[in-house]
Amino acid sequence: MSLIPLRRLACTLFIFLLLERLFLPDSFAGTPKFLENGLSASLGGDASFLAPSSTRLKIPLNGYWTYSLENGESGTVSLPSAYDFTGKVDFQRTFEIKAEDLDRYQFHIVVYGSNYSTDLFVNGDFLGNHQGGYTSYVQTIPREILQPGKENLIRIVVKNELDARNSLPLRQSVWGWRNYGGVHRDIYLLATPRLFIKDAAVVCDVVPNGTAARFVVSPRVEGEENAMLPSTSPDKQAVLGMAIEVVEALSGLSVARSPVVPVVRDGESWKSGRVEATLQNPRLWSPESPDLYSVKCVLVSTSGKDVTVLDELQIPVGVRTLSIERGDLVLNGHRLFVKGVAWYEDHPSWGSALPYEERERDVVMMKNLGVNTIRFVNHPPHPSMLDLCDRYGLLAMIDLPLSTSPGAVLAAESYEELAAGMLREMVMRDRNHPSVLAWGLGDEIEASHPAARPFVASMVQLVRSLDSRPTYLALRYGVQDSCTDLVDLAAVNVHLPDLKAFKRALEYWRSGHKNKPLLVTKVGSEVQPGNRKGYNDPFSEQAQARLFLQRLDLVRTLDYDGVVAWSFNDWRGDRPALTVHGDDPWAHSMGLVSERREKRLAYDAVRSVYRGEKPSAYPAGSYSLRAPIVYVLSGFIILIAAAYLYNASRRFRENVNRSTLNAYNFLADVRDQHGVSVFHTTYLGVIISVACAIVASSVLFHFRESLFLDNLLSYLLVFDDLKALVIQLIWDPLRFILVLSPLVFLKLVVLSGAVHLLRLLMKSRVFAYHAYTATVWSTTPLLAFIPIGMILYRVMDGKIYVLPGLILIGLFLFWVSVRMLKGISIIYDIYPPKVYLSGLATFAVGGGVLYLYYDLVQSAPMYLSFLYTMVGSGR
């Protein structure tokens, strides 16, 4: 008996996979696909991350590389590019180094982003591994493995498989972002002097009256001591030093200099004091006036009056003050109201590998909205986006890719170390940008879990050791908050469709965080592409526009410090979502513009609020939510079919009555080989199967907006293509009934086969016909599903009837299960309690095996427990 549930599960999965191939369109097949950017890297002054200088060389590696896949497929692809499948790809190309350059320079591989796990090799030697797809990294190449004057082979092995417990981000849940793989951002060789400036943190202090600004630079120097130039004077020793020069970005005029500060050897490293320069009458950076400067950090060797420049590092900066005063954000002495929009680094043509021109086009569109802040939701952006923010005057909220993370994951010490390493990379790369407003430590994590508070405290401590800008943790409204007091900004995501409930949520959040700046970091509405039926339709463009008009205005009225519209653009998720309302379950239509940047009505609505313009009026239209008539029609058809045979055949009528009211005698007759028509049995099985399909469709269609069910399907079905098929069926009740009915009937046949196989254990002579008859006629009580299925969807519209309805369905199924066990005991002539205990043991063992499977493969119990704590807050 222990084989029955496992056989049923295996059979069901096989059938679903077969139907998947028959019903799913080709676009769901997941064939290897590269989304190529193919443009050259930005090597000029606008590349602020390790910007070029007179002492350094940048050798671009963008362009064509050979690739090979795990299945043996190979070819060429232009990098940067994003591959839209899950797996490992091996990229290779060659480069040349001149002999004189090898003597003069230290070479590094600079990767702006490769997702997710990356192994680097040069000439067959392993250089290192990097975890994380959205932070930039630099890998130094040992000089001895390079071959001057010959071709050098660089090999990059990228794997984008995410894990449910150990990767950052975790494997994406529904409504997450697309996990594109590959080298999806720029890559180049950086040649620095052998003694060079590795990094420099720039702090700008403005005096209270704004008449002067002091630049304080803390540099890090690395390299070989013998790389210093020897003294040109026999009686003087060469001295290493550091100086800075402040230059206007537009004019190139030098406006401030520092004296040379000594750099000395300290064990295995170099140590320098702080280097300072004062700028008189600085122009302050702000969204309205984004004036920029450039700080040139110069490493020099001095011998008497002779000064030789060894290395130069240029850092674009801005002069501005940012503080929190009396619970308000204050920029340059004025209260700041964040008028934000969330941006996803995604495009149908390039995936996450957007060309520079497309990024700038997005920035211009956001600036025209009246936006003053971009929230880079879920992960750090390409470095060029922050360069654009600096130049266009847009503040940036940068998130660690820590989204919807259960507390049990945060509790692991190894995961805290992984998050700390990625956070360090994020802050150190971007901390000199004047546009950076705040650092995000996560989005909708399980803040109620005991492990969340120490985890967040550790992240806050790390950020404060690296930078002075504020931190925030975007929590989902409705989830218990134990962490916001640790961060600087009280940020909340509110997903409530009712305006009054939205207002109550904001008032409640404000009452609990009176001494912090208050931000709503996600507010938005899904739109059904092409739907312009009026705002009474909740998924129309008019409804989306009206929602933004009402909620953005309400946030300001309640004296919050800012709001972020979710989102600027549509994006693609990594898991198909039941709760989307378009034809593509992977496409998330939350944007003010579409995936291809076509403006929606909401774009103009947000613009009118952010710019203080008169908003447009939107038509209400007509909209009514109707129960699908298919439940009534299909139920009526099988009701007529059942009633016809019930009245036309005395034998069928007697069998139905006896199997329902006196099951023991009926099944005893089956055991004693008193014939029951195979036609009647099959006829009943078909009617029962359709009735079950109608009830199942009614329940799932009712919960089609449930985030919990959405995630439950992801964890239980495992295969995304399979879930996409199930989503299509749930949203199409007629098709659901047509597909599930034969599956239910087939399940009855398989179950009867399993009952028949028990003869091998029982050593009883039971024919397949008897097992089939006993199995099908045990389900007679499910004839009640015919009238239930016809009215269930409408009944469940009343919330108070949902739970009783589910309980009633559960009782019927339990009754039928007991009847089947009773039937087994009768036809095999076994003591009934023994069969019931065996059935219970089988259920427990089967349930335990499934639990272990889903826990090991999907970590499903942990995630579903986490989701349960969030159900009350809605999507």
Q: Quickly count the helices.
A: 23
Number of domains: 4
CATH architectural type of the largest domain? Alpha-Beta Barrel
How would the global form be characterised? elongated
- Order of adjacent strands in the largest pleated sheet: 25-26-27-28-29-30-31-32
Total beta strands: 34
Task: Decide which structural class fits the backbone.
Answer: alpha+beta
Major β-sheet, in short?
8 strands, parallel, barrel
The CATH superfamily of the largest domain is identified as: Glycosidases
Low-pLDDT stretches: 1-30
Overall helicity: 25-40%
CATH class division of the largest domain: Alpha Beta
Question: CA-to-CA gap between the ends?
Answer: 42 Å
In CATH, the topology of the largest domain is named TIM Barrel
Provide a concise account of the structure shown.
The chain is an alpha+beta fold. It has 23 helices and 34 strands.
Written overview of the protein:
- By secondary structure, the protein is an alpha+beta fold.
- It has 4 domains: 3-23 and 628-873, no CATH class; 31-193, Sandwich (Jelly Rolls), CATH 2.60.120; 196-227 and 238-317, Immunoglobulins (Immunoglobulin-like); 338-610, Glycosidases (TIM Barrel).
- Helices cover 38% and strands 23% of the residues.
- The strands form 8 sheets. Strands 25-26-27-28-29-30-31-32 form an 8-stranded parallel beta barrel, surrounded by 5 helices. Strands 4-3-6-11-8-9 form a 6-stranded antiparallel β-sheet, with no helix packed on it.
- A hairpin with a 2-residue loop joins strand 17 (261-266) and strand 18.
- The longest helix has 29 residues, at 799-827.
- It is elongated and about 115 Å long.
- The two termini are 42 Å apart.
